Amino acid sequence: MSTNGYHADSPPPTAGRSLEVELLSEVISIELDNLDPNPQDMIDLLREGRCKGWIWTTLAAEYWRNGYLDGAQKIGEVAKDYCDNDPQLGSVYPVFALLANLQVARAYKAPKMILSSARQDKLHAERPKEDYYTDAASLFNLGEKKAAEAGDAGNVLSLLTRGILQLSKRSMSEAQRSFESVLAQKPTNIVALLGKAKILYATRQYPQALKLFQRVLQLSPQCLPDPRIGIGLCLWAMGQKEKAKAAWQRSVEVNPSEWPAQLLLGIEAINTSKNENQSEEERLSEFLLGTRFVERAFKANQTNAAAANVLCELTIQKGQYKRAEKLAERVIQFADTKTLLSEGYIRAGRITQAEGIAQDAFKHYAKAKEGSQPNIVASVGIAQLQLKNDEIPAAIHTLDTLLQQPSGERSAEAIAMLASLRAHPRPGVSSTDQAQEKQRARELLERVCRILHLPEDPHSQTANGSSTPLTRSQRKVAQDVDLHVEIAKLWQGENNDRMERAYQEAARLSEAGGRADPRIVNNLAVLKHLEGDASQARSLYEKALTDAAGLDPAVAEGMSTSILYNLARAYEDQGEIVMARDAYEKLLNRHPEYVDGESDPCLASLCMYGFRSAAKLRQARVLADMNRKDEAHDLIKQSLVSQKSDLNIRAFYTHFLIQSGTPKPAKDFVFSTLKDHDKHDLYALCAAGWIQYHQARESRDSSPPGVQERKRGFQRSAEFYEKALHLDPMCAVAAQGLAIVTAEDALGNLGGSLGPMGPDEAQKRIKDARDALDIFAKVRESINDGSVYANMGHCYYARDEFDRAIESYETASKRFYNNQDVPVLLYLCRSWYAKANKDQSFSAMATSLQYAQKAYHLHPWDKAILYNIAMIQQKAAEMLLSVPPAKRSLKELERAIEQAGHAQKLFASLAQDESPVIPYSREIADQRRKYGESMLRRCDEHLAAQRQWEAEAQAKLEAARQRRQEERERQEAAERARQEELRVQAEKLAEERRRAREEALAWTRDMRVESDEERERRTRKASSRKSRGGAEGSADEQDGEREPRRKRRGKLKRGEEREGEEEALFSNDEEDAGAGGGAGVGKPTKKRAKKRAVADEDEGEPSAPPRKRQQMYKSKEYISDSDEEMS
């Protein structure tokens, strides 16, 4: 401890490294660099020589400098008693200050707290820092009392000691005042400068602190503690990291045995090793260098919590938990900041959690959360422990509390963990609450996607790359495959697009990890399959099968079975019937009674359809598509023999019989299902309703018993549908069946088929269609099928809303049938035909013809479609011939006539068709042919009329265009003439203004000349008046004064006479000319008017008292000034 400036009569410290002590007869030199750790001999020597107090404190300080704190304290204690008893040896206060600083030095190496539950680093015999600080304060106060008694209070040493004690107690403002008081007396005091610099750094005043550290370095380059460390810390905080590193490196060069710079360089090197932009060799080199620096620093000072904290993390990564626990306990006990204390508790919690000591881990994490800022790692650790103890609600509460804090709201790790907990089903949670929890989990995961910029975030598609880079921990979360699978599961069944993006990212990450997970690839393939992309789904299924083959056979068997089934379905949808059959046979050879999705309950595959069907049934479906219906029938019967009561197989068999065109066996089988197996089977009830409705509708028996039987069939159909809806109010198939019954008025007279039509039949038909539409709109939300849109189109067609009918049909055709379904194409043809007739639109009729031709291309054997094509072509020509020439074009007419000729050939061939069963009437076909002949005979006349009308219309159009062109040219010529006239006027006005400016300037020059002459005359007359006597001179002066005024008035009148002729000259031309503006015409300036007014006033006062004469002099002076201004 420096005592510089304390005693004026004390000799300065010795220049060398020795201290001379005078005895009675000799002088003994003490070598300060080679002191005996035991100071007893030195104490005896100082006693014998009756040395001054400053020698005692100097020797004690040297012991302290050499690290012998006990020796220094022993010398100080003896000196305190020795000097206190003998006032001639000097003041005892420096001894008290020395002892107080020794206690502070001991506090620096003492633990902040004693951990009573420490298992490795036990320090029960040590005293905490607070005890040393208390002793130091006691010694300081006692010394202050002694100094006050001696009349020596408030000296530099007192202020320094006070500042050090205040700084150690974190009383920054008081310490700063103490140090500033020292610097006011001694501006170069090193201790005060260092103390103030440290306070400025702690209060984040880095530039000011930097200047002080640099000042200390200039004053004392060998100062300890090294100011270069403070310089580096300030530079680092100011962002100048390379300069900071250079300062610390220089400190290590100057003081290789000091640990602070080594610790800082070690931490910097370890952090640099985490930079992923460097090569692996560079990162490893930086890591090893940093580790060596930190180990050296800790070896030099094993009570340093920062070094222990770094080494603890490195030791945890090595798995050396015993040593790591000791280091963590060292951090906890010696930490002097809340941040270090929290990190010590967190690492202790991690170690005990890894060792399975959950209770201790929970305590450590709870202690870490007691800091001022919420600790994310501690909260996550507590949640993990609660989750391990199956306390899921408590874990959710812990994470919820964390995320409500500002520091935790952007923690992707905590948010992802909380989302996973909320999405996980928990016992005792109702379905409503679970749905709410699932929604909250989605919202949380959306926050994670936004924070981490994941592909699942819809806004990430529009990001422009301006987002902040992710941290290392955030990248680990973003690369977690399970996180993306969790996101996909939460959106399952609600948003296939987001599911697909999540599975794509999960598949990419799993492939980047070395091996793709077959389950993820399979799920991605199923999504593609559901979207209708069978080709992409097939390639993904094949890849998943290949990936599954490389796994353990026990796991791969279940995966490959389900994936093979999905692959067979893809073959089937692609039309690869042979490959699909082979895949099903291969699957059945492995598992003769395989049912999809049941062989591996752990497989995260998606169910493609609502019911479960055996692979044997899928093979039957393939054979049926190959028109090998007998073989398909045998396979279904085999399945029924083995699983006679399987309602899914019975439903498939019912469907097979209906599609095979055998409604009678289908009716018997479905009634058998309802009677013998399950009278509440929804599929059987809906199938029975459809069969009853189909038979009643297709019946052609018009006899009274036949009509009654049809009515009963419709009634039974409605009853079956109603029963299905009673069992399941959400059954969309039954709802659609009832809607069809309502739309076609099957329970009424079926549009006149079951009885006479009433007068309001049209209104009733529209109302029934409206009611059916309401049902179909709700069914559409449950059934994603083209039949719903087709039925809605029928309702719109019945209401004569052809545009909306076309929209519904096109949706069904494009979205569900790929424009390959003939009935839907014919529905579109019918709707466009009706629209064309209603709007008299040839283009709509052409569109109708196109749909009919597409349907004929798919079913070239269907003569009904061929008849419709001929009818549309003939009707198009008939429509164009009936409209006036203004509503048609020659090109359309020629095309319609050409199509009508083609229709004639079709009608002729259809009328001559000798097939036994045809879907049209030969007589009507022949009549249409004859009608076409008569219509075509009038075509030449219509063509000639159309050509004549279009020629006349073209001539009128050309004439109108020519008139518009002539009018436009006339207007342009008039505009050019007007612009030329304006230009000439502008030039004339500019010339007049130029002449006016020249005249004004000439007049101004003349006025200046006249004003100069008048001023000279007044000067001569004034001098002659001064040479005359008193009264006579006064009269002469008045006469002489009025004379120039009269002359001046004459000039003004002369100006007034010219005012009428040259009024423009008295405008603001002069000011405009001086300011660069143009000449203008205005009134005379105010100065001329004011000048005339003064002249008139003087003229009306012939004899005035002297006071008035003095006022006249002022007026004269003012007029003279005004004349100068006007000139």
TrEMBL record:
One of its GO terms (molecular function) is RNA polymerase II complex binding. Residues 1018-1028 have a biased composition (Basic residues). Keywords: Repeat, TPR repeat. It holds the Pfam family TPR_8. The keyword Membrane does not apply. TPR repeats lie at residues 190-223, 561-594, 786-819. Residues 993-1017 have a biased composition (Basic and acidic residues). PROSITE patterns: TPR. GO terms for cellular component: Cdc73/Paf1 complex. The keyword Repeat applies. One of its GO terms (biological process) is regulation of DNA-templated transcription. Residues 455-477, 993-1127 are annotated as: Disordered. Residues 1058-1073 have a biased composition (Acidic residues). Residues 460-472 have a biased composition (Polar residues). PANTHER family: RNA POLYMERASE-ASSOCIATED PROTEIN CTR9, RNA POLYMERASE-ASSOCIATED PROTEIN CTR9 HOMOLOG. This is RNA polymerase II-associated protein. It comes from Ceriporiopsis subvermispora (strain B) (White-rot fungus).
